[in-house]
Specification:
Blueprint (H helix, E strand, L loop, with lengths): L1 E2 L6 E2 L7 H8 L3 H35 L6 H28 L1 H20 L4 H15 L2 H12 L2 H32 L2 H23 L6 H6 L3 H14 L29 H22 L2 H7 L4 H28 L2 H20 L4 H25 L9 H23 L7 H21 L23
Antiparallel strand pairs: 1-2
Helix pairs in contact: 2-3, 2-5, 2-6, 2-7, 2-8, 3-4, 3-5, 3-6, 3-16, 4-5, 4-6, 4-8, 6-16, 7-8, 7-13, 7-15, 11-16, 11-17, 12-13, 13-14, 13-15, 14-15, 14-17
Keywords: Membrane, Transmembrane, Transmembrane helix, Transport
Pfam family, one: Sugar_tr
Membrane topology: Multi-pass membrane protein
Length: about 475
């Protein structure tokens, strides 16, 4: 069967056209760019929520009379991450059972609700609870957004778009830093933190409203036997991109067992899942250990609060070149090499940060860490969803996110060493984490560049080589 199109015929072979072939032949267009903007908005909002406590702690301390080093401050830093440990695994599994779109709408709604609740918390325990529930809700955004983006973007563009999506983390960092900076000039710290929590929750509401018109993933719909809805979803992509409707039937994949977390740790997926989990753990432990405490570290070094927030804005801007370079390298040299390279550079950056003796050197080495770590995150987010089959993609992403959040829960305790005179020990731990993650990423042994999602996921590392 042959369908005419502006760039040539669309060919379908018996028994039908695969989703990969349909998306590739429709090509890149307005639908993918709109999806990037919508997913990016919620991703930026989640980034702001994750980093929020680092900026709010001075005000919370003033409001509730908490002393420097009080255990309540560590609880507040870890509460969001602890919620994400549970939420990422739960919502990722549910998205593979119910659908990407439904879970997205639920998690964003709950994230806005619990985020606003934290702004009105009258006591520290209630604030900790609100932050835990916020983390539980936004933990579902990662597996859903990345599964959706990976499944709607043509093969040739998939790596770059997944890095582009991760780059919205920098936008969220800029948002929370700029809000904290602006509020610090208008309100006393004991009042500013409540406004900060409330304002950071609102972008998620905008993302919820504009996301209502996005159809669910056609891949997921086909695995659930909803072929008519899958066909309609592909035709939405064609219509928005200015292409003719797809007339050929979509291939229906073989029936599969319902997704369970245990399936990503069985059979040929076992090795890659374990190595991938160690990569996520090492990168997360080091990244959050440094950056969740960096505002407090700079403040303890004698910076005024306004200067701390200005510096954080500059460091967020340093993330953008890292993302940009990663978006190029994932398609030119491959996902695995890009990820391992940025992780190795991060290990070096941690030791350069340790040797920084002047304010300029601290800023320069911090900027290098921002550049290299966010380049690593961009490559990791491009790589991970491609390593799992469609029926397990959200489950796998959710499991990796949970592993990362376990590291995030541990990282504030290690990062606190930055404030207690144990800088050398803390940064050595973080440098070893980055170096170990680089080795694990390389040992995965799978290069996914240029391959359709239908060719990936089921094969083990020995079966798909660079």
């Amino acid at each position: 069967m042959e369908l005419s199109s502006p760039s040539g015929p669309l060919r379908a072979g018996a028994p039908g056209l695969s989703v990969d072939a349909a998306i590739d032949q429709i090509g890149l267009g307005a639908f993918q760019w709109r999806l990037l903007a919508l997913c990016g908005l919620t991703w930026a909002a989640d980034a702001a929520e994750v980093l929020l406590m680092g900026f709010a702690m001075p005000g919370i301390s003033a409001s509730f009379g908490l002393a420097k080093g009080a255990p309540e401050l560590t609880w507040l830093l870890t509460a969001t991450f602890a919620g994400m440990v549970v939420g990422a695994a739960f919502w990722g599994w549910l998205a593979d059972r119910l659908g990407r779109r439904q879970v997205f709408l639920i998690t964003v709604s709950l994230g806005v609700l619990f985020g606003l609740a934290g702004a009105f918390a009258p006591t520290v325990p209630l604030l900790v609870l609100a932050r835990f529930l916020t983390g539980f809700a936004i933990g579902g955004t990662l597996p859903v957004d990345y599964a959706m983006m990976a499944e709607y973007v043509p093969t040739a563009w998939r790596g770059r778009f997944l890095v582009y999506l991760e780059s919205f983390w920098a936008a969220g960092t800029l948002l929370v830093a700029a809000l904290a900076w602006g509020l610090s000039t208008q309100l006393p710290p004991a009042e500013a933190w409540r406004w900060l929590l409330g304002l950071v929750a609102l972008p998620g509401l905008v993302g919820l409203l504009v996301r209502l018109g996005i159809p669910d993933s056609p891949r997921h719909l086909l695995t659930r036997g909803r072929s008519a809805e899958a066909q309609a979803a592909v035709n939405v992509v064609a219509r928005v991109n200015g292409r003719p409707a797809l007339l050929a039937p979509l291939q229906i994949p073989p029936a599969a067992l319902p997704a369970t977390p245990a399936q990503v740790l069985s059979g040929p997926l076992t090795g890659r899942t374990l190595l991938l989990a160690l990569t996520w753990f090492g990168l997360s432990l080091g990244y959050y250990g440094i950056f969740s405490w960096l505002p407090s570290f700079l403040r303890a070094g004698g910076m005024e609060l306004g200067q701390v927030y200005q510096t954080t804005v500059l460091l967020a801007l340093a993330q953008l070149p890292g993302y940009f370079l990663a978006s190029i390298l994932v398609d030119r040299v491959g996902r695995r090499a890009t990820l391992s390279g940025f992780l190795a550079l991060s290990a070096l950056g941690a030791y350069l940060f340790l040797g920084a003796a002047t304010p300029g050197a601290v800023l320069g080495t911090s900027a290098l860490l921002s550049f290299s770590l966010l380049g690593a995150w961009g490559a990791l987010y491009a790589y991970t969803p491609e390593l799992f089959p469609t029926r397990l993609r959200s489950t796998g992403m959710g499991l990796m996110s949970s592993v990362a959040r376990v590291a995030s829960v541990l990282s504030p305790s290690i990062g606190a060493m930055l404030l207690t005179g144990q800088l050398s020990a803390a940064l050595t731990i973080f440098a070893l984490c980055f170096a170990g993650a680089a080795v694990c990423a390389w040992l995965i042994g799978v290069e996914t560049r240029g391959q359709s999602l239908g060719e990936l996921g089921e094969a083990g590392p020995a079966e798909v080589q660079p």
